[in-house]
Amino acid sequence: MSTKHYIAGLVIILYLGLLGYLYSGIGREAAYPSKPITIVVHSKPGSAIDFMARKTAAIAKKYSKVPFVVENCPGTQGVVAMQHVIDSKADGYTMLGVTKSFLSTLIVNKSKVNLDDFRFIANMISDPEAIIASRKRNLLTLKDVIKDANSGKTQVWIGPGTGSRDHLMALTTWKTLGIDNVKWIDYKSGPQSVLAIMRNEAAIYVGNPADIKGKTGLNIIAIASKQRLPALPDVATFKEQGYNLDESMWRGFALKRGVPDEAVKYLTSVLQKVVNDKDWKLYCNETYVFSNFEDEAQFTRRIHREVKNTKHYLNKAGLLVEYVKKSRLPLSIVFLIITAGMFLLLLAINRFRIRFVEYSQWVAGGIMSVALFFFYQTTLFQIPDEINITSPALIPELWIVVLVVLCLMLIFTEMNKPETEQVSDIKTVWIVIALLFAYLVFMQWAGYYLTTPLFILAAMYVLKYRKTAFMITGSFGFVLFSYLVFNLLLHIDLPQGWWFI
Amino acid sequence: MICRKDGGLYNRSMGALNDFWLGLQEFGQFLPILMMITGVVIGIMVGVLPGLSPSIGVALMLPVTFGLDAISALVLLVSVYLASNYGGSITAIAINTPGTPGAVATTFDGYELTKKGKPLYALMTSLTASTVGGLVGTIILILFSVPLAKIALSFESYEYFALGVFGLTIISSLAGKSPLKGFIASGIGLLLVTIGFDTQLPFSRFSMGIPQLAEGVEFIPALIGLFALAEIFYRIEKGDHIQPKEAARVDLSQTIPVKQLVKLKNVMLRSSVIGTLVGCIPGAGGTIATFIAYDSAKNASKHPGEFGKGSLEGVAAPEAANNGSVGGALVPLLTLGIPGSASTAVLLGALMIHKLNPGPELFSKEPGLVYGVFISLFFANIFMFFVGLLGNKLWIKIIAAPKSLLYPLILALSFIGSYFIQNSVFDVGVCIAFGIMGWLLKRGDFPTAPVVLGLILGKMIEENLRLSLVKGDWTDFFTRPGSLIIIALAVVSLFLPYLKKKLIKIAK
Fold it and tell me: Quick one: which of A5, A218, B196, B333 has the fewest CB in 10 Å?
């Protein structure tokens, strides 16, 4: 026995110890709460909701027996995060950060996720909508805005998103102020919109008061809340200027329906204590929002009221139409037909002798099939005439045409090129790929910690590595390493598998 | 520097010195220095792990900063940001896996050097270039943040579109043997990036009803697949893993190539400036800067033929640009309060949490803090250099391990790297799919780098083209001086390699 064998033995012992530690809690019912509570957030780190979640976690430390950790699940404006919470166990250890934008998300995306899948346990914050202009414009009050809109030239309002809360706020404001010579331009991201308004590129930017923090040259014309913000005592509300408009973004927390009442009660009381903490008040003041606690009953009533309103305005803006026709044939069949056609074309070009088709020609043919499949999908787009934008099909079709032309050029230039013989072991590659897919599938059942060493060992075996001691140290050592780095150091949970949930 | 209201020249320079002194006092304490050291070490680790991009690294450190004072918090985050940009190059060189998006261009020549048994050359070049880039970026940030902020502010959709087109012309220098295959590869990237939400209407294109595709293909898993997996599949096919040990030998007795590094000073300085300038444009960012720097280094080089085959200049240029972009990205954040990248968006949040308002006010209200951060960046760069020197010894040993032992471990690392960006199993599938695609392309001598370029630039081109057309019409691209200059640069960059060849022929 040499040192390497001792190390391998030690690694195995440590690995078994880790497994025992990770899975020891399973099957034992401890009193709630007995492990950290995850707050799932639908954005990448750094957004307003992410900060609220992290601030909540930091303050909750004072009032909760277990820590709160934030997990980011970005994607499809919240659908991914909502689905993630629905897929997790209804045990009160997974909480979802919710914002008002979820209402439009669920309506516009027509996703399977439903508001009734959740219990909205606490509203934490009310972030009033604001309309903001460059100081150079001399738009100081709502009267100025109306006068400017009626002066003949179309008034441009900007903000991030089409069908977003900011867009809906613009629509609501136009109706309240009674102006109609106006246009909404979607600047995609918040920062880009703010830059544009700093350049005085448009008349009005719709956003939140915090957007002007630290910037010179911008002024808030009005905020859509009942009272003025303590941090911005000079900024008047819509109401004070004679227009009744109350539009705020809210941010709060929800749980999956079916969570035991005991957990709901516990979390609600912790969240209520967080809102009453002096650090929370400071945080709200600093970020120009109102601290606004609503319990489950109040919060749910609010949501029901606002869903109706959201639908009304989305419909009015023409955003609830179907933009894509249904394909007559299923898309997979269409793809098969295109690929088969391509196959025949390649054969025909090479005088129907399959041996003559060059590898590059096969690749070019494959790329063309995908490009043409995309082209078929662009023919299904239907954009209502009254929406005045360049067609969503324009740029994809441009790339498709370029690709098809270039691929055809390649197919013809590569004809009858002499093949160079090369070492090639395709079989091993496909075995490794198959192993990867098997790893992907089994990891979801049996968890990361069990499947990973098996995958690494199998792959080493396939690649003809045979030094047992190093194989063991490498594979089990890798799992120990990933536990140390990801779980302990960076607090990223690796999946433990469905078997064990 | 932001000048005070009382501004004469004399007052201003005295004010700056004074601010500098205040900054030194803020930074020169136990906790900020400890945070700088911690930040650099964690940052390098974040960079080395594929999938952990600088922005994720900064975000992961964010909760830690809640308990710190403002200067220590900012120093920690800025150090992580800086060092992770360097760390990404290590795996790019060692195993052809860019640890961060900004290290893609480093693989072109860095990995070639490793294959030739000279990884230490590449690692030392990348470390030195990163340090030089970081220092130049910091100096530019300190001296010119106000005029640069004006440039950043003047960039409208027209200029972004032009910049995207300029970026595309770089393909001609990435394409390698067959330009036609290079252009096809970039077309694949451009087409695949149109999957997902339309840039003007709320509906998803080409996602075929798959909810995970509704927002398009996630970039980092695709990147890991195209580089790490594709390369491993390709090498396995070529039988690389069963070669006798001598063939894959790495020269462990290499010494640090000081002379060659000194020769690279011009490339490093020029690329650092490019990195800083492009970095300060919100939304453009470090990754595009690395490609532009690579392209310009190749065009200016005396040995353009070596690029893509293991040129030290080809390693120095993108790395200097990448770390230069850190200083650049802080310009719009600190002077305008606009985050130009995902990482600076997290920094903005951190500033807010510590009750600081980025923007002109910050310079006048908290000069000590701003200059303290500047000074910390300076020292973080130097500290990073020494940590990197120590690290290089370790990386070389890893590279020298047998491939059949190394490949399974890299595959497992790629797997976990693409998983935890969104905790999504689907993303792992994306990574494997792009790995297979990259391998199939490589077998036919199609370069994979243009695919990445297409993925990076496609959205920028489409979004800004359509936004420009909503605001005005086609002529605006040519009547605005900014976009006209960039378009002219694009045309020059497209034809320069061919013109140069022609001229050389004529001269002969």
Answer: A5
Residues 466 through 505 of chain B touching chain A, CB cutoff 8 Å: 466-467, 469-471
Residue-level pLDDT at A420: 64
B2 in a structural domain: no
Per the structure block, which two tokens stand in for B132? 């030089």
Place of tokens 């399974």: B408
Domain ranges of chain A: 33-127+250-316, 130-246, 331-413, 425-500
Instruction: Count Cβ atoms below 10 Å from residue B210 Cβ, excluding itself.
Output: 11
Host domain of residue B141: 9-507
Please report the residues numbered 287 through 346 in chain A whose beta carbons come closer than 8 angstroms to any beta carbon of chain B.
287, 319, 323-324, 331
Q: Note whether B233 contacts A: Cβ–Cβ < 8 A.
A: yes
Considering only CB atoms, A162 lies closest to which of B202, B444, B462, namely: B202
Please say whether the beta carbons of B418 and B224 come within 8 A. yes
Please determine, for residue B473, whether its predicted confidence score (pLDDT) is greater than 80: no
User: A253 — phi, psi (to 5°)?
Assistant: -130, 150
pLDDT tens digits for range B212-235: 788 888 888 999 999 889 999 998
Q: Could you tell me if A449 and A479 are in contact, meaning their C-beta atoms sit under 8 angstroms apart?
A: yes
Nearest to B336 by CA among B159, B157, B146: B146
Contact A195 B55 (CB under 8 A): no
A468 in contact with B, Cβ within 8 Å: no
Q: What is the mean pLDDT of residues A382-398?
A: 81
Which pLDDT score, from 0 to 100, does residue A165 have? Answer: 85
- Residue B342 inside a domain? The answer is yes
- Single-letter amino acid code for the residue at A493: D
Answer whether A51 sits within 8 Å of B461, measured CB to CB: no
CATH number of A130-246: 3.40.190.10
User: Is B339 part of the contact surface with chain A (CB cutoff 8 Å)?
Assistant: yes
For residues A468 and A12, what is the distance between their CA atoms, to the nearest angstrom?
12
**Chain B window 416-445: which residues touch A at a Cβ cutoff of 8 Å?**
416, 419-420, 422-425, 428-429, 432, 435-436, 439-441, 443-445
Residue-wise pLDDT tens digits, A19-42? 888 777 655 556 788 788 889 998
Q: Fill in the DSSP letter of residue B211.
A: G
Query: Does B4 map to a domain?
Result: no
Domain A33-127+250-316: CATH superfamily, name plus number: Bordetella uptake gene, domain 1 (3.40.190.150)
Q: Is the pLDDT of residue B161 over 60?
A: yes
| Rounded Cα distance, A321 and A319, in Å | 6
| CA B49 to chain centroid | 15
Q: Is B361 on the interface with A (CB under 8 A)?
A: yes
Q: CB–CB of A429 and B236 under 8 A?
A: yes
Q: What are phi and psi of A121, to 5 degrees?
A: -85, -30
CA A482, CA B217: separation in Å to the nearest integer?
Answer: 26
Please give the Cα distance from A289 to B431 (Å, whole number): 41
**Residue range A101-119: mean pLDDT, rounded:** 80
pLDDT value of position B8? 37
Strands across the sheet containing A290-294: A68-72, A37-41, A94-99, A248-256, A118-128, A290-294
| pLDDT score, position A318 | 75
Q: DSSP letters of A108-157?
A: HHT-S--GGGEEEEEEEEEEE-EEEEEGGGT--SHHHHHHHHTTSSPEEE
Least confident of A210-219, A379-388, B391-400: A379-388
What pTM was computed for the model? 0.86
| Nearest residue on chain A to B405, alpha-carbon basis | A460
ipTM attached to this prediction: 0.85
Q: Which pLDDT score is estimated for A456?
A: 95
Q: Which residues of A touch B419 (CB under 8 A)?
A: 494-495
Number of folded domains in chain B?
1
Of B62, B183, B282, the CB nearest to A406: B183
